[in-house]
Amino acid sequence: MDADLVLTGGEQSPLSVSGAEWLDWFKLLKPRVVSLVVFTGWIGLYLAPGHLNPVLAFTAILCIAVAAGAAGAINMWYERDIDALMHRTRNRPIPAGRIEPGAALAFGLALAVGSVIMMWLATNLCAATILALSIAFYVFVYTIWLKRRTPQNIVIGGAAGAFPPLIGWAAVTGSVDVLPLLLFAVVFFWTPPHFWALSLYACRDYTRAGVPMLPVVAGATETRRQIFGYTLVLGVFSVLPWALGYTGALYGISACLLSLGFIVCAWFVLRDGQAEDGTSLTGDRPARLTFRYSLAYLAAIFLAIAADHLVH
After folding, report:
1. What is the DSSP letter of 164?
2. How far, in whole angstroms, is CA 65 from its chain's centroid?
3. Is the pLDDT of residue 203 over 90?
4. What are the two backbone dihedrals, phi and then psi, of residue 175, each rounded to the nearest 5 degrees?
5. Residues with Cβ within 8 Å of residue 10, at least 6 apart in sequence
6. Is residue 31 pLDDT above 70, yes or no?
């Protein structure tokens, strides 16, 4: 029996209800996604030449986090029908009935507008404009236009998650330069192998929901080829900051080793055998390993460039 019910004589305590509600509102923000967005945005801010007052720097990072959460909330509002059909998303607050769709949309819109205005007031118009563009791209281009229409949804839509380094850089400088654009490219080309690895073992969910992810439309074999191809391209772009002289050897060596590890993971995915029905003979272990490695890879790449900047 629930301890709260015992302590309150059979009635649920207001504290527990409030806690559960707050947790659901927090989940609307997609906190795991936000954490990665905040990290890459902070690296962009850290690498930028010039100085930003620590309070304003914190405000800029907070705005990036709030904007990413706002986009996630609007995404959950729009995708509540397909979320209800997929095992890994059906317990999200909206399809589970714990938050009303209209309230979620209003929440997301308020956070989106507030984050852009605050970024403008705290830093500059350039950073605020890129922040607004990132929200609009994720909501209108990826969520509404691409996701239910084309298996290229992740390829094109991946740009939405690549904006944070540009925003962080622009918050300090009021402009955009080559280095943050290269970091944008790293995240952009990282996104397809990252999400396609996930979609290989979540294929049934996407099929059930009618989402045209690459494994659903083109099959597992073609998806494995695409994962390997994009991982090779990612490897090239990851070493460009070093090759073009924007970083030192610490980053260059780290990028080479990390990318080699990603390529090896993608190779195992490519060589993964499959049964006649298209399912993996290994239980999708290579795809799961590649998905987990991809998360560590992106964090390590950005840590490496920050460490390189620190020693130089």
Report:
1. H
2. 12
3. no
4. -155, 180
5. none
6. yes
